[in-house]
Amino acid sequence: MTKHENRGLSRRQLLSHSIAAGAAFMVGAGFVAAPDAAWATEVVALQPETMATLVQMARDIYPHDHVPTEFYVIAVKGYDTAETAAEIEAGVAALNGAAQGMGHANYLAMGWERDRVDVLRGMEQSAFFQKIRGGLVTGLYNQKAVWPLFGYEGESFSKGGYIDRGFNDIAWL
Amino acid sequence: MVAKFELTDNSVTVIIGTGAGGGTLANELAQKGVKVVALEAGGRYLPEDYINDEWESFGQLAWLDKRTTSGDWRVARDFSGLPAWIVKAVGGTTTHWAGASLRFQDHEWKALTNYGKVDGANLLDWPIDGAEMAPWYDLAEEKLGVTRTGGREGLPGNNNYKVLEKGALAVGYKEVHTGRMAINSANRDNRLACQQTGFCFQGCKWGAKWSAAYTEIPNGEATGNLEVRERVHVAKILHDDAGKVTGVTYFDADGKEQTQMARIVCVAGNSIESPRLLLNSASEMFPDGLANSSGQVGRNYMRHVTGSVYGVFDKPVKMWRGTTMAGIVQDEARLDPSRGFVGGYELETLSLGLPFMAAFLDPGGWGREFTTALDSYENMAGMWIVGEDMPQETNRVTVNKDQPDQFGLPSPNVNFSDHPNDVAMRNHAYAQGTAIYTAVGATRVFPTPPYPSTHNLGTNRMSEDPAKGVVNKWGQTHDIANLFISDGSQFTTGASENPTLTIVALAIRQADHIASELAAGNI
Question: N or C: which end of chain B has fewer CB within 10 A?
């Protein structure tokens, strides 16, 4: 899997004005990035902190420890538009409000997944949660680059199917 | 030479829909010299057009017009605008079907007699039986090239089948095999043998699976007696003062309203659209809709007792490789009320790709309980339950007068709730499916809820008594002699078998009847 370091910002640009914002993400003016700059994304309509929170929320809804964060970024990037920004900012504000209600500074500051999941369970019926969750079903799992991480091979027609390539190769039964 | 008929030609037979029922009927009538205009809401897609990508294919083929749902089935909550996963295209859902081609068992034609009265169920005997249908099944199996019939070999079993077979034999099942499938096990009918490619649901890119799109339709067109009009949506069936149907109005591909005259109209739009069209054709003479003197149009909607069982193992299965429906366990299809329910069920392998597994394994599910299941996707095996559900008058298709579709026509609502017999059967099947996978070492099992319906049945049912159903034993409506129903909505009861073979057999038989009645001047 190649690293998507040029999604919006070059690694050098990023490192030249990076601002540390905790363990999970670097949040700077107009961008969010991995602490090691493995990926970075520019934000155009959302606050960078909002995008970082959204990415963490996506990981907490569908946590796959072997799936790099860049795929979650791709899955939620579509919300970074002028049309959706107000709704997303309001939803993330509610998420942070719930985190504060549990004694944390904000959602991203909650160190344990189980605490963040408690917050999500509390807002599971909200339109915001359902929108993000529903969008991830296709936004995350329909990325062709994600499929190999689950062993899924996608189409086989172009290779002549599996008639000569292991349709019945199970050996452990 | 493809035929072209005038809108004013009132000698033609109009068929609405070109799937297993309509497509077969169109070809069979054309072969007998009957002039046919087939009206199809979808476009024409052939193997080179099919897309082996689940969501992209869904966007290409699925019927996505406005529909609503109600009732206590989970589909109404999780997929409220998508009661059914069926196809809008020339060839209809024969593009999407998996190919399982099973005859009804003799006792299933007479459900009321053999099961007795069941509280809350509207059971009825079919006015036909296994002996009557046997020769038509023979013709249907030959047309579809069904494996394990007519001397044809079975398909080879893939990994998903091997897991099912070993587990099923281990728990004592005997009738376990790779199915009777309308998928070529050897080159036949100018179509290739199965290449074990997967994606049977997305249209077979080899043409190895029978689909009306590239068999019945071109064969019918080659006679010069069949004209297929694509991307036309029928709005209303017209009738005269004598109560005979005279034609249909439809919106053509440009959205313009047209009227095609007809001598006979055959409705084959599937069990949601067919009753919807009859209801939307209400007139002063027929205020409750056409052919609805019984009040049964739209009622007794059946969808089979379905559900899936997925098992996770400690080693890879790669269930997506090869035929989607690669094998079957038939032992539970028998009638044995000692199990706590009437009717029976089949267990058939099934696989979904990762994108659809994420959407359908536990709709609405999230968190690690859900994602650890998908983490084991490569190690999963899957099976689908197909069982007989109880017809209920309140499970029905109605029309939403206040919620029009894109043409301004009242959209359909599908109301469905399980009967207690359905629930008992599904729970039994979940337990048996779990036992099968556990017997070969499954470490985790998922009793997965039903998907949006692919088997839509019963909403214009066949009955001896005109007060109890919509059509007679020929699929001819009791009320209007030149109006026929030609799809699965004719089903009096659903039996435990996948319905396509029976729909095709009924269509071949109906074509024979219509042609001889036309020749005799009776219609």
Answer: N
